[in-house]
Amino acid sequence: MNLYLEVRNKLALSREKASELLETISPEKLERIENEKQLPTPEDVMIMAEKYSEPTIKNYYCANQCPMGQHFVPRIEFDDLEKTVLRLVASLNAMNEKKDKLIEIASDGIVHDYELVAFINIQNELEKLSMALSKMEVWTEKMMSSGVIDMEKYKKLRGE
Question: 11 lies in which domain range?
């Protein structure tokens, strides 16, 4: 099922009510987006993510529908805080063990053939770390959009 439709249904909104909430997206355009007859614009996605209080919509769009994002953005599933933190700590620990090897490989500015396997292993671990960080970002944004975390206070403390 289309995520935009799934989220709207979860909120128990008719297309007309959703269109009123979204303000700039007509019921007809919403129908085309939900039936995959038209791709949403990035602006449409930002509005839906904000008004539906569902930040995962942004990642869905980038990972699945944006021509550039499809090549660079991994799909991120929302997880609870415990799983998110455990994955993050596991990735940090694994990278901590590999940091000296990465420094050794990078010290001459060249990845030699004999270093290639270790370099690829480090890259794979960095990708896991990046994914864990992205999951933490999605979790935080979801908690702010649902009111569990005070968004204004959070942004003020982060200096945003």
Answer: 3-72
Regarding whether 92 and 67 lie in a shared domain, the answer is no
Would you write out the chain's pLDDT as a tens digit for each of its 160 residues? 789 999 999 999 999 999 999 999 999 999 999 999 999 999 999 999 999 999 889 999 999 999 898 888 888 887 889 999 998 999 999 999 999 999 999 999 999 999 999 999 999 999 999 889 988 998 999 899 889 999 999 999 999 8
Residues 112 and 142 occupy one common structural domain? yes
Domain count within the chain? 2
Measured at the CA of 23, the angle between CA 47 and CA 7, to 5 degrees, comes to 50
Q: Please compute, for residue 71, the number of CA atoms within 13 A of its CA located in the half-sphere on the CB side.
A: 2
